[in-house]
Amino acid sequence: MNTLNTFLFVVFPYVAGIVFVVGVTYRYRRTAFTVSSLSSQFLEGDKLFWGSVPFHIGLLAVFFGHLLAFLLPQATLAWNSVPVRLIILEVSAFVFGLSLLFGLLSLLWRRLTNPRVRVVTSRMDIAIELLLLAQVVLGCWVALGFRWGSSWFAADLTPYLWSLLALSPETDAVFALPLVIRLHIAGAFLILFMVPFTRLAHFVVAPLHYLFRPYQVVIWNWDRKAVRNPKEPWSKARPKNN
Amino acid sequence: MDVRSQISMVFHLDKCIGCHTCSVACKNIWTDRKGAEYMWWNNVETKPGTGYPGKWEDQEIYKGGWKKDGDKIYLKGAGRPKSLTNIFHNPHLPKIDDYYEPFTYKYLDLIESPAGDDQPTARPISMITGEPMDIKMGPNWDDDLSGSPDYARNDPNLTKLSPAEQEAMFQLERMAFFYLPRICNHCLNPACVAACPSQAIYKRGEDGVVLINQNVCRAWRMCVTACPYKKTYYNWNTGKSEKCILCYPRIESGHAPACMHSCVGRIRYLGVLLYDADQIESVASSDEESLVDQQMNMILDPFDPEVIAAAKANGVADSTIDAAQYSPTYKFVKTWGLALPLHPEFRTLPMLFYVPPLLPVMASVRDVSNEAQQEKLNPIAKQWPDNWLYDTSTEEIFGTIDQARFPLEYMANLFSAGDTSKVKERIMKLMAVRIYRRHKTVGDISEEKSNEALSTAGLTPELADAIYYLTSLPKFDDRFVIPAAHREQAIEMMEFTGDVKGNTGFGFKDKSAERGS
Question: ipTM score here?
Answer without folding.
Answer: 0.91
